[in-house]
Structure formats: C-alpha cells, structure tokens
Write a structure and sequence with these properties.
Blueprint lengths: L2 H9 L3 H8 L6 H13 L7 H18 L2
Helix pairs in contact: 2-4
Length: 68
C-alpha cells in the first residue's frame, strides 16, 4: 500500500481526532513522535508524516471550535 492510500485510510478513522482529544488540542514533539510510532505499529506506513501533521491541524481546528 502506498503513502497516499494510507493517508486516506487514516483520515477515515477516528485515530487523528482521538489523538487531538487526548492532547486537548496541544501536543509536543514527544507526543508527535509517539503518534507517528503508533501509526507504524498499526500498519499505516508508508505515509507522508507532513500530510499527517496537516490532518492533525485540521482536526485540531474542529476540536477547538467545538470546545470554545
């Protein structure tokens, strides 16, 4: 499976939003590295981690809007 397919597959799951919720919309480098590692463990690699970061930022915007 290629990186683009894995990103699409990931975006259809609750995994990104669950991470954002767990971190309450704010995460550090260690949290990011652990998240990336968890994606590898779950079989989502290869994946463009830059695009994953953008996906998380989108989910963060949704999270922040819902929790104002």
């Amino acid at each position: 499976m290629d990186a683009e397919k894995n990103l699409k597959k990931l975006s259809r799951t609750s995994i990104p939003m669950n991470f954002v919720k767990k971190c309450k919309g704010s995460w550090g480098h260690t949290d990011w590295l652990e998240f990336c590692s968890s994606l590898e463990d779950k079989g989502y690699t290869p994946i463009d981690f830059g695009a994953v970061g953008a996906l998380l930022e989108t989910k963060k915007t949704i999270y922040v809007e819902k929790n104002k």
